[in-house]
Amino acid sequence: MSTFTHIDAEGRVRMVDVSGKWPTLRTATAGGRVTMTPETFEAIRDHRVRKGNVLETARIAGIMAAKRTAELIPMCHPLNLTHAQVDFFPEPETFSIRIEAVARIIDVTGIEMEVLTAVSVAALTIYDMCKAYDKSMTITDIRLLAKSGGKSGDFVRQREKKGETP
Questions:
Q1: Which of 21, 74, 117, 151 shows the greatest Cβ crowding within 10 Å of its Cβ?
Q2: What is the DSSP string of 64-132?
């Protein structure tokens, strides 16, 4: 049985033991999308949402979530990120906001879960702040876009849609 598994020799769940690995620079990028009505999109764009600046609040929420991923995802290693960022790309043609999170660390384990959590929480924050305007908003396309470093090597997702950037 591989050392890097969540299952021990007796078949019980455990945290993966990464104590034998060497720290390396690891980066990861994740993306997602929130689609909404034209009115909601314009309210966010024009800073007319009564609860405040939606994208700045979502940015803070996403960064905070990345830093606390181990508290949310069972068996996830607690990490001290050296960099975390969340950015938003409004797309008026689809009345959606594309979200992208990037994180870096020098450590023995990857940070894919941290960027996926950052995107998820940022999207949920947008929904929460705008649900009074639009309960039909959809959160989609949350996925790993790229990662580098570590034993499993590099990964870059191929473009899936016109205009999508990995």
A1: 117
A2: HHHHTHHHHSTTPPP---SEEEEEEEEETTTTEEEEEEEEEEEESS--HHHHHHHHHHHHHHHHHHHTT
Phi first, then psi, for residue 149 (nearest 5°) are 90, 160
Q: What letter represents residue 152's amino acid?
A: S
Question: 64 a known binding residue?
Answer: no
Instruction: Please tell me what DSSP assigns to residue 56.
Output: H
As a whole number of Å, the CA-based R_g of the chain is: 18
d(CA 15, CA 77) in angstroms, rounded, equals 8
| Spatial distance between the Cα atoms of 63 and 101, rounded to a whole number of angstroms | 8
Q: Is 17 a catalytic residue?
A: no
What are the structural domains, with CATH classification, of the chain? 24-148 (3.30.70.640)
pLDDT per position as a tens digit, 132-148: 999 999 999 999 999 99
Note the residue count of the chain.
Answer: 166
**10 marked among binding-site residues:** no
Q: What's the confidence (pLDDT) of residue 7?
A: 73
Does the annotation list 42 as a binding residue? no
